[in-house]
Amino acid sequence: MNTPPVGHHEPGLYEIRLEGRLHERWLAWFDGMTLTSVPNPSRDSEASAGQGVITVLRGPVADQAALHGMLARLRDFGMPLISIARIDPGPADDTGDVAGGDR
C-alpha cells in the first residue's frame, strides 16, 4: 500500500492510547475527538485503581501543531502514552464505552 507523504499542515485522523482512565469532563479540551476506554489486558489486576484501563482518544487533528498541542495537554495529565497512530478514515466503530473516572 502506497501512502502519500503527509504535510505538516494537512488534517488527519489520529488515535492516541493512554494508560489509565481519562475522565470524560476533559473531552472538551480535545475538540472533535471521541473518548473510549477499553480493558488493558496486561494490567487486569489493577482495574479497580483505573490502571487496568486504556483510554483511547480518536478523531480529527487539524495539523502537526495541533497534534503537538494535544500531546502537551496529555503530558500534563501525567498519564503514560502507549501509542499515537494516524489512521485511515473508515466506517464508525464502537470500540468501548465513554470513559468516566478519576482524572
Explain this structure.
The termini are far apart. The model is unreliable at 93-103 (pLDDT under 50). Helices cover 14% and strands 29% of the residues. The chain has a 4-stranded antiparallel beta sheet with strand order 2-3-1-4, covered by helices on one side. The chain has 1 helix and 4 strands. The protein has one helix at 64-77; strands at 12-19, 34-39, 53-61, 81-87. The radius of gyration is 14 Å and the shape is globular. With 103 residues, it is an alpha+beta fold. It has a single domain (12-87), classed as Alpha-Beta Plaits.
Poorly predicted ranges: 93-103
Work out the helix count.
1
> How many domain modules?
1
Mean pLDDT: 78
Q: Assign the structural class, choosing from mainly alpha, mainly beta, alpha/beta, alpha+beta, or little secondary structure.
A: alpha+beta
SSE succession: EEEHE
Share of residues in helices: 10-25%
Distance between the termini: 39 Å
- Overall morphology: globular
List the defining traits of the structure above:
103 residues; alpha+beta; Alpha-Beta Plaits; four-stranded antiparallel sheet; globular
Gist of the model:
The protein contains one helix and four strands. The protein has 103 residues and is α+β, with helices and mostly antiparallel strands. The protein has one domain (12-87): Alpha-Beta Plaits (2-Layer Sandwich).
